[in-house]
Amino acid sequence: MLFNSYEFIFAFLPITFFIYFYLNHKRLTVASKGFLVFSSLFFYSWWNIAYLPLILISMLFNYVIGNSLNKEIEENKKSFSKKSILIFGIVCNIALLGYFKYADFFIENFNFAIGTNVNLLHLILPLAISFFTFQQVAYLVDSYRQETKEYDFLNYALFVTFFPQLIAGPIVHHKEMMPQFANNRNMVKNYRNIALGLFIFSIGLFKKVVIADTFAVWATAGFDTAITLNLFEAWATSLSYTFQLYFDFSGYTDMAIGIALLFNIKLPINFNSPYKALSIQDFWRRWHITLSRFLRDYIYIPLGGNKKSSFRTYSNLLATFVIGGFWHGAGWTFLFWGFLHGIALIIHRLWSNLGFKMWTWLAWFITFNFVNIAWVFFRAKEWDDAVKVLGGMFSLDNIILPEKLESKLSFLTNYNIEFGYWAENIKGNDFTAIAVILGFILILAFRNSMEKGKDFKLNYKTALLSAICFIGAILSLNKASEFLYFNF
Fold it and tell me: Which spans are transmembrane here (predicted)?
C-alpha cells in the first residue's frame, strides 16, 4: 500500500488511527498494540502476502536471539558465548538478505568469471527487507551491548513493523522507539501532534506526487529511453534525477514522520537540506541520516574507525561506503557509487588535515556537482547508461539551443551549435529548464519541513500551506507511483 494512494489516505490511515485510540481510551493497551501490529502487517501484506511469513520468521528469530543476548550467560563448555550468539544472529540476517537481494548478482558474476551457465534464481526482492534487516541487526548489537531492556514479543513486533517506517525507514533504534510506546501520555490523542503530523505529511505528499514525479519523467526518459543525449539534455537528465531522488525519498520520510506523529511517536530526522552541504562529509551528515548513523556505529567504528593509523582510517572509510553502496543494490554501479563517495571522503579528510579552506560558494559548487555526477552511477541500470549520460554532460560536440534564440544567436552556428528542439530525447520542453531552476530555488532558498516543524504553530498560514500541498497532491494522484527506495 502506497502512502500516496487513495486507499491509504482515505481508508487505512483514518481507520487505524481511530481504532487505535479508541482501544487506548478503553484502557485496552495490549489490544491497541496488537491492533497496531496487525494493521502494520496488513499494510505490509498489501503488496504481496507471500512474504508475510518471511518478516514474521525474521522477527521471531531476532527476538529469540536478542533475548538470549540480554540474559546472563555462564561462560562454560555447555553454552555459547554472547559474542558467538551475536555473530550467529548477524550472519543469519545477512544470509537472508544476501539470498534474496544478491544471489543473482553473484551467480551472474560467477558465470562471467568462470564461463559457466548456472541458471539465475530470478527472486523477487521482498519489500523492505533491507530496512528491517538493518534495523534488527542494530537491535542485536544493542542487545549484546546491554542497551535494550525489552522482553515482550508484542512490543518487539511493534518496534519492527510500525507501518510508517517499516517500508523505507527511517532506520530506528529500539531504545528510541519503545519508551515512546510505553509512555501513557502517548496513548491519548494529542491535537498539536495531529496538526503537526498532517502539516508534515502534506508537505511530504506534495514533494512526492507533484515535484518528484514531475522530474521522474525526464530522468526516466534520459536514462532508460534516449539513445543519445545532447549537452543540455544530459544535464537536465542528471539534475532531474538528483531532484527526483531527493524529493521522492525526503517526501517519503516526511510522510512517515507525519503519520507517526498522529500516533504521538517521534521518528528521527532523516534529511536536513543535504544539497546545501559545503563538503561531502557535511552531505552525509544531512542525507539519509539514519543510514549514515548505522554505517558509522555498526560498520565504520567496529572496523576501527579513526582510532588506528591514517591508512587504516582511510581504508575503513572506503570499506564502509562500498558496503553502503552495495546495500542499496546488487550491481557494480552501486558499488562504484559507494567507492566514489568513499574516495571523496578520504580526499576531504586529507584536505582538512592539511588545513586548506575554500570559498563557501566554491565548496558548495564542488560538493553539489560531485553528488550530482555520482548519482548518475546510482541511477544507471547498466554501465552504458551512465556513460551515455556522462558523455553528453561533458561533450561540446552536440549542443542544441532553443529554436527561438536562433535569430539573436545565429553566429553560434559557426561553432557547430544547432538550434531546434533541445529536449526532444527526454520528452522535455521549456518547462523542464524552468523546473530545474525552481528545484535549485526550493533546495537552497527555503527552510526544510523539519525546520518548519520545530516552530510550528497552528494558524491560518500553516493551515493554508497544508491545504494547498494536500489538495495539490490529491489532484495529482492520477496514477500509482512507487517510492524509489522501495527498490533498495
Answer: 6-23, 35-65, 85-107, 119-141, 153-173, 194-221, 241-263, 311-328, 358-378, 431-446, 458-477
